[in-house]
């Protein structure tokens, strides 16, 4: 498992780094192997926030990309919270894959979600709104149910994908009533 650490306004000792790697290695085994794990630590500068140390972890497995974020009064406290969240998400995902083992369902495939860039372009639009961030990524073909699962694992409000059933771009999104909606593009 390839693990990369990034820190901003935070100091992480070698001992803490090794301890975090051990915990993530354990999670990797729970997730049936992770190919890559990205760990970011930073400190919020807002004095009104008590838990200023932030840890973000993105785990890339064969079948999913799992992301979690935690905060604490120290780096290790934040890391422990993230490990708990990741463990919960992995167990939740395993429960969903067992349900999907029914003969009518296909197994979850790797999404191949890759964020190519993180450029910050500013483009002026009518009405004063500006595009302040731009991302490009591959659009994996998958079933809407799998896209909804990816959306939950990434803790996003929506997920853009290619609908495996129609072959067209689609979006699943979290509705205010707690259900998931699907927007499917029409053919021209």
UniProtKB/TrEMBL annotation:
Keywords: Translation regulation. One of its GO terms (cellular component) is cytosolic small ribosomal subunit. The keyword S-adenosyl-L-methionine does not apply. InterPro entries: HPF/YfiA_ribosome-assoc (IPR050574), RHF-like (IPR036567), RHF/RaiA (IPR003489), Ribosom_S30AE_C (IPR032528), Ribosom_S30AE_C_sf (IPR038416). GO terms for molecular function: ribosomal small subunit binding. Gene3D superfamilies: Ribosome hibernation promotion factor-like, Sigma 54 modulation/S30EA ribosomal protein, C-terminal domain. GO terms for biological process: negative regulation of translational elongation. Pfam families: Ribosom_S30AE_C, Ribosomal_S30AE. Residues 130-182 form the Sigma 54 modulation/S30EA ribosomal protein C-terminal domain. PANTHER family: 30S RIBOSOMAL PROTEIN. This is Ribosome-associated factor Y.
